[in-house]
Amino acid sequence: MTEKFVHDMANLLAVIDGSARMLSEEFGRSAHLNRILEANRQILAIMETLRAAGRKELRHRWVDLGCLLRAATDLVQAEWPEGICLDLDLPGHEALALADPVQVSRIVLNLLCNARDAVARKTPGRAPKGRVLLSLRRQCDPPGVEGRAWYEFRIVDDGIGMDADTRRNMFLPHFTRKGAAGSGLGIAFLDCQIRELGGRISVETAPGRGTAICILWPEIFQ
Description:
Strand order of the largest sheet: 2-4-5-7-6
Radius of gyration: 19 Å
Strand content: 15-25%
Distance between the termini: 30 Å
Shape: globular
Order of helices and strands: HHEHEEHEEHHEE
Number of strands: 7
Oligomer: single chain
Largest sheet: 5 strands, mixed
Helix content: 40-55%
Number of helices: 6
């Protein structure tokens, strides 16, 4: 079933990719076309991840996390409100880690969209205004602990924040504050995925004070 689904999706994505490339040749490359092609590439990668999961294959390789984060932020720009400032604090050198690039991209995209929505909900019915910060840095365990190296992702927003009840339930499947617009599966899935890969996730938040989500991603998957 998974193989057939991936095959059929790949055929449809090939049409999108081919059409986008034809438009590119006819009208020249643009930021919007680049995003279509990149999103198409990432969907294909997700399909391959599904295929690999069905075969119980690992798809980890050495990737530059900084490059992945920059690509993710570029993808969300198409629907990013002008009034919300998206700041990046990424290393100027390679940030290499052994990981599945599709998983990393999905995690970052999901959290960036959540942060954007949290800021937008501060001013319902008006143009949103606020700030989201995405940062990345490398850190190591103190001597005598585990002796592992980690990369710390931080996604910080000055949105509506969360009360204690929301914070307590945010990782439960199907829990959402977005009504019909949300499935409640994004954060629950990410939490499970991060922990299965040996990572850690923590949340600091308060009503009206925004939210900071910190993910510790192991440099080497064990």
